[in-house]
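Q: F-box/LRR-repeat protein 12, please. Structure only.
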Amino acid sequence: MVLDCFPENVLIDILSYLNVRELVRNSRVCRRWRQLVKDQRLWRTVDLSSWNGLTSRVLWVLLRQYLGHGLRCLRLRGLLLSARRGAFLTESWLQALRSKCPRLRRLCLQYTDLRSLRSCRLLPASLQVLELRSCEVSPGFFSQDPEAGGKAAASAVAIETLVLDGVPSFSDQHLCGLSTWQQLSRLELRDLGRVSAGGVRRCVPPGAQTLARLTHLELGTWRYAQMVALGLGKGWPGLEALTLGGNEVSPGLLSVSRLQDLRWLRLRACRLNTKTVLRCCRSLKQLRKLELADL
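A: Structure for F-box/LRR-repeat protein 12:
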């Protein structure tokens, strides 16, 4: 074959333009191509969200034959809206993923049922970013015992960024569970009907169960009553970036003046008048960046 004349690095670059299914098919061409496809440079960012018919069996095949120490980002689409349903991410698969992919930093799940998983500690300990979009979670999924020692302490959540978009089962109880996440600095909440303004206020430091290390917070598409009651207590020490989105943002701006450490304010997909924005910004002495998107 003509391609056999090319050096390995050139072939790796060519193969990098293929998606996962195409890579797997090309691995069956010959022994050399199989070795090339298994090169971990091709498996740093793996997007399986567009793979129709993805099952737990396929996940096991990919993990055993292709995924390895090179994996940094993994995107999956589950079976939550599929007629097939059934188990998708199992505890055994996640344990194998933790072992084979120790450098995994970002995990993005869409339409995935996580209610069979007891705790978030089953996720790879190397994760820094977790995105859940249109997923389902168990009541105690985000909780962990801060006093636990031994193996539980070694597997403590090290996630720094958590994105929750359209997770219908996520409630104030889950939000309270995030207070045990010692590394969490960025939290994005969008389309969460069971999270109340009171639940957010209880996370404001000081307090026994607060998100004291949070520096970035996004509240998207909240209802009018939630924005009116937002409050944010007497302020949120250390909160440097805030994003508000939805049609009812104006009432929420009344509480922003209490965030004296705020440096970046982003207003997205909302209706505002100039007077309201100016009144809000004048009270923020540390504000350095104002971003308006999709107004």
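A: Brief note, in case it's useful. The first helix runs from residue 8 to 15.
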